Fold this sequence. Notes:
Elements: H1 3-15, H2 18-25, H3 29-43, E1 48-51, E2 54-57, H4 59-82, E3 91-96, H5 101-115, E4 120-125, H6 128-137, E5 142-148, E6 157-165, E7 167-171, H7 185-189, E8 195-198, H8 203-211, E9 220-223, H9 226-234, E10 239-243, H10 244-247, H11 251-254, E11 259-262, E12 271-278, H12 285-302
Parallel strand pairs: 3-4, 3-5, 8-9, 8-10
Antiparallel strand pairs: 1-2, 5-12, 6-12, 7-10, 7-11
Helix pairs in contact: 1-2, 1-3, 1-4, 5-12
Amino acid sequence: MRIEQLEYIAAVTRLGSLRRAAEELHLSQPALSETVRNLERELGVDLLERKRSGATISAEGRELLPHIVSVIEAVDRLRGAAGDQHRVSRMIRLGTVNTATVPLLIPALREFRATHPVTQVEVVGAQQTEIRRALLEGSFDLGLVNYLRGDDVPPDLETTELLRGRPVVCLRPDSPLAARPAVSAADLLDGREPLIVMRSGYLMHRFIHRLLAGRAPSFSYSTDGAEMGKLMVAEGLGVTVLPDFSVIGDPLERGGAITHRPLADGEATDVLLVIQRRRSGSVPRAVRDLHELFVRRAGTRHA
Length: 303
């Protein structure tokens, strides 16, 4: 059971409908409904009465409402007593698609550790849809995800752009394709180098499918996340396509194990790395500090 689940029930009761509660909380109605259903399954009680005209608090929910309000008020008192402490001993859970783990995430965590020595950070690799769901449910505090230019950004999450780059071909310096000033889709299909693609569900998998117009190379590997893709390239297994900010500054690139070449003209688009968090509910000081640190460090990389 999570406090935001109880806050959602209180909002539905106060506003008289699931729809109005979702609007006030900046959540989609399906996401709010599913969160409430999870609480109902845990309690074994139908808290909402669902009709064609909408959902409102049920009779059973009204009977439990004083207990729900009591818990919310107790948590508010606890938060007030804790105040806005600079150092908070808690766990921050950060979901990431791993596209810029080494160039951005690792330096940010190192700096965060220096100012928050008692705050643990759990970094969880996941796909974008999993990160969004965990943010809405409250099991992740922050999320690092990617979008292509023109993609819709979910309105129920606060989204801040960190980095903007272009897809490039990541390869070894001794790759035959490294002699080219740019690499085309035809080069990736001709079988000269095996293609290492991200698994379905990752943004770069979608980009590759669009780049190759649905055509498949003669042989390819499939893997989870940019970090494993770069390691496979460094070991000579093939080439992969990643955002330039995922390759530039990576230790493998600095050490000469991997390099990159641009895609041929007309075969690229902007890739955005963003940081996301829930819009509703209070945000602990440590989470705000880590969020601000990512934004600041990303600004330094832009400069």
